[in-house]
Each structure stands twice: as C-alpha cells, then as structure tokens.
Model the fold of this input.
Amino acid sequence: MHQFTENSTLLAIESSCDETSAALYQGGALKSNIISSQMFHTKFGGIVPELASRAHVQHIGAVVREALNEAGLAMQDVDAIAVTQAPGLAGSLVVGTNFAKGLALRYNLPIVAVNHVEGHIYSAFIENTAIAFPFLALIVSGGHTSLFFVESFERYTAVGSTRDDAAGEAFDKIAKLLGLGYPGGIHIDRLAKEGRADAVAFPRSMMRDDNFDFSFSGLKTAVRTYCQKTLAAPPNEQQLRDICASAQEAIVDVLVHKTLKAAENLGAKDIVVAGGVAANSRLRVRLQEAAAETGRSVFIPAMSYCTDNAAMIGCIGREKLLRGVQSPLTFTIGVGSLRARYR
Done:
C-alpha cells in the first residue's frame, strides 16, 4: 500500500450529477482537470437521472485516461484516489465510486470518500492558499444554498441553508417560466445586464429574519404572478430584460445580506463563494463591493472550479489523506444533505 505524503500523486473523480470529471495532483500542483458535461439534458429542461448515469458509464474511462495523459502520468504513478461519495444523484454517484474502487483494488491504492459540498467549501484553495481560517463559505448552486463557518480543513459547521429551493434552482425555474433555456442562470445573467434591477419589486424572502437561512420558492411564484396578472401579453424584449434583472437582484440581495451578516456575527474576515451560481456576474460584483466596505476579502474560484469538477474533490481529498484519513472499499454512497450531517 502506498504511503501518502506531500509529494504524492492523487487521482480525483467527480460524478455526482451531470459532469464526469477527473483530475490529477502531483504534490500540491494541479496537473489536469478534465470535465465532460452532459449538454443533452438542455432539451429536457433539467437533469434526467437515468440518462445522466448512463452517460457517466460511457465517458468515465475516457475522462480518466485524458486526465492522466494531460498530466503526463500513468496509473502506476498514482499513490491514492479521492472520489465523490455524496450528495448527488444515486446512479451517478454509483458509477464514479465503483470506478474509483475498481482502480483502488486493481492498483492496491488507498481511497478517500469526499462529500461533494465539502469539495466546494475548499475549492478556492485550488488557486489561493492565502485564505485565512476561520472563514465563511457561501455554497450556492442548483442543488445547494448554504453558509458554512470553516475553522480548519477538518472542522466546519453549517450555519444556514435554504428551506426550499436553492438559488440556482430558482434561476432555472424562473428561466423556464420566461421561456429561456436551461441552465437558466446563464440566460438570466446575460439578459439582466441590459435590464433595470428596480423595474419590478420582487420579494426578498427571509432577508430580515434573525437567522442565516434562505428561501427562494416564493420568488418563482412572484415572477409567475407578475407575468400573468401585470402583463397583458408575453413580455417584450425590454420587459424580459427587466424581469430578469429584477429577479436576479432579489436573489443577489438576499445572498449578499445573509453572507455579510453571518461573516460579521461569526467574526470571519475572509469569505469564499463557490458552486455554479458563484459564476453569476452580479453576485460577484455585489459581494466583493459589500465585503470591501467592511474590510473583508472575497475569494471566488475560477469559472472552471465553480461548477462540478474533480479538482475540488482532489483539493480536500489530498488534505484528508495527508492527515491519515482513508475510506474502506466497502463505503457506500449517500444522497442526504451536508446540513443534516454536519450542523
């Protein structure tokens, strides 16, 4: 069995939803990060779990080979494997974990199971090691909207989460109402740049509540009601831009307010934002401006590390292995929320 050290080589695999990804670390350096995205889900307006798992089966071998080739490595050079265990789509997780277990068994390698959201929490460390503990992490995506108080690579606490829709889910549902494509956040972000954020007074649910939780389901209903009762016909181009800008601003207002409130109350100087919605241009600008006013720094991973990717799984997987954490080959997948496990 290989002993994992600072100079060891790590293969990481991510398959929790609709991205098949593999990455290689050699020492502390990321050598490759290959992502195969299942774009065919667009025509269904959302992820079809059975089709997602089938696509993982078709592509995972080629993705791992490409990651090894880009890194200039072979499986014989790998000292350990990190793989996403939970949360996610059950079929998708089974493909990734079973493939990783097979490699670990074949090459007699240690394996470590990583929580997908945990990967997002530490993803900013891929490019920036200057982040100071303790920090606050806002994980915001299609499946998650949560705040974590992070004290070290081994200790973190969920302090807030959505009670219904995640922010990314709200973007997708609003985009569908407006007849836009999937995933919705990209289209809303683009149209909002030419719209008025104050055109429609959409609700900011739970923004003033004395907690760090979120709720976005009411916003979707508010957009539908506005379109049905206020507009005499389907929105024209400018009305569509204004609705997108106003809905986006409502989501961003809540995210920024709650994040800064939590950072202040918990004494966190640095803020990490990760997950697919971290790519939203308005959220990036607003949060960085608000944090600067309070003397805080915001760290946001590059776009390629915001969406689901194996580099983030390898980043925290490596830290676990260096601390002696390993998983048995008998570990099982989990689809529960990180909030339920760690709060």
